[in-house]
Write a structure and sequence with these properties.
single chain, about 150 residues, alpha+beta, 2 domains, three-stranded antiparallel sheet, 4 helices, 3 strands, about 55% helix, flat
Length: about 150
């Protein structure tokens, strides 16, 4: 697959040289295009494309994990592992806080809906059901939400 893509890229013609126009409209916005500007200020930019450069994958641009094979001491490896564990704990805590906040928002919405239903004319059985749901929601909100 990589070979096919490479051949495809080599087969496509590249623009050898061309003019690029820098256009400024009446609102002062600047745009660049291959055709002359319709209105506003125009200036021509001599453009010659550069050879594409290889981009290093993101995984290589990150800080490498210390290990004995890349010259790190045991202390550096231990420190790295502690930092990594701390980041994992922080992520887990933030994820849990987000879930709790979403649940609090949901329960709060349910509380408002049941209070609105309680204000309408309902049979006594339904009213008692809504009151029980309202009390449950208020208790849950008091216990788990800020």
């Amino acid at each position: 697959m990589k070979i096919f893509i490479s051949l495809l890229l080599l087969a496509t013609p590249l623009h050898a040289h061309g003019a690029i126009y820098k256009c400024t409209d009446e609102k002062g916005r600047t745009s660049y295009q291959e055709t002359p500007c319709v209105a506003g200020n125009q200036s021509e930019i001599d453009y010659e494309p550069r050879e594409p450069q290889a981009v290093e994958p993101a995984s290589r641009s990150r800080r490498p994990k210390p290990s004995a094979s890349n010259g790190a001491s045991r202390e550096e490896v231990r420190k790295y592992e502690q930092e990594l564990e701390q980041l994992r704990r922080e992520l887990a805590r933030e994820t849990e806080e987000t879930k709790n906040q979403e649940r609090c928002d949901s329960v709060s919405g349910e509380l408002e809906e049941n209070e609105a239903k309680l204000r309408t004319r309902q049979p006594i059985k339904k009213r008692l059901e809504y009151e029980a749901k309202i009390e449950d929601a208020k208790g849950w909100l008091r216990e788990y939400c800020r």
